[in-house]
Design brief:
32% of the residues lie in helices and 25% in strands. The chain is α+β, with helices and mostly antiparallel strands. A seven-stranded mixed sheet has the order 2-1-7-6-5-4-3. 33% of the residues are buried.
């Protein structure tokens, strides 16, 4: 820490308990507009406002850019609510799993660790250089671009792609 900066130089989201829930954080973030709209459309917003703890691998608006506007609009249709909920649930794991816990699991697992999502399928973590990479059931990969954004009911790890439980 540079001289004279004191505790204000420490990013509070990384070291201290936050006052917002995961739902509140996504609602107030400019990076998660699409994600929050999807959470609200599927009523998962209510779940992520509960006590938890949860680990949320949160795709940014840029990550949702992997879908065409037509595909995205289709996902938000009422008849596809279950499909959208399944997609979002694939990004959510019960418990508070920090980046250091993921790294410990990777060490214990010989470079691989899998986590069961609340959707019921596994997502696999590996390392690529210094990056933690998540691989979905179809082999698609997402990189954790920002880790350990602690909230009052869990932790958000920002990812650069939407991971998929099955073909969409």
């Amino acid at each position: 820490m540079a001289q004279g900066q004191g505790l204000s130089a420490i990013p509070t989201g990384l070291y201290f308990s936050a006052k917002k829930t995961i739902a509140e954080k996504t609602m107030k973030s400019d990076q998660y507009r699409t994600l929050y709209a999807a959470l609200k459309a599927t009523d998962l917003e209510e779940v992520l406002d509960m006590d938890g703890p949860f680990t949320f691998f949160a795709p940014t608006d840029n990550a949702f850019g992997q879908f065409s506007p037509e595909e995205l609009n289709s996902l938000f249709k009422e008849e596809n609510k279950a499909k959208l909920k399944s997609l979002l649930s694939y990004h959510l794991v019960a418990g508070h799993i920090s980046a250091s816990k993921i790294l410990k699991a990777l060490c214990r697992g010989g470079g691989r660790a899998s986590f069961t999502t609340i959707q019921g399928k596994k997502v696999t973590a590996t390392m690529s250089g210094l990056d933690i990479v998540l691989t979905d059931s179809l082999g698609n990969k997402a990189i954790i671009t920002e880790a350990d954004n602690n909230q009052s009911n869990g932790v958000i790890h920002q990812i650069d792609r939407v991971i998929l439980p099955s073909t969409m």
